[in-house]
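Standup, Tuesday
Yesterday: got the pipeline producing structure tokens again.
Today: sanity-check two examples.
Blockers: none.

Example 1:
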Amino acid sequence: MPYAWNHVTSLSFDGYNSPDASGQVFISFIGVAPFLTYDGFGMNDAGLLFLYYFYYGALICGWTVHDSLDFAAQAVWGVNFGSCIFRSGFTAGGESGQMKVYGQGTLYM
């Protein structure tokens, strides 16, 4: 999907730890994406809260995508994004999923 939307084939496969200099970032899920109100990640509505804190960091505080992901994961689970369940992978409803960041995670939104 990142290649279909961004029209490039050279985005970093790990824009969180190894951002490129493409000037583009794409965040998606491989496999299943959790419902925003799914309660199986150790907190009620974890997806909704993660999304809220991510956008708060990116749009209100003006932080990079990388820092906003860390902020959201810290707010929800008390760990940086690199150690959170969305990044490491999860199983929900019998299917697995993992959040991925492609491209330049150091961009500001």
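Example 2:
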Amino acid sequence: MHRRIDLIKYEQIPANEHVGPRYSIKLGQFYYLNKEGSRTKGNVYIKDEKNIVYKRVGNGQQIGNFHPIWINFKGENIQIEELLRRE
């Protein structure tokens, strides 16, 4: 079972779009899981080259000066930066 949304809903999401060679990613609203803000959780929308849009829950963790976000996409736990680099 795939969690997909319509392309028209993806285009209406008011967020910055991160574009890679194969996927484009928009981040939805993120929430703090602790007082310091070092753990976050929020919606991640991924559009592939066939214009299929997937909705995933992203988990972020502050590591020094960097806040990577991990998602479970097609059976693997991957950072969204790595997903943007895929060709």
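Quick observation on example 2: The mean pLDDT is 87. The longest strand covers residues 24-32.
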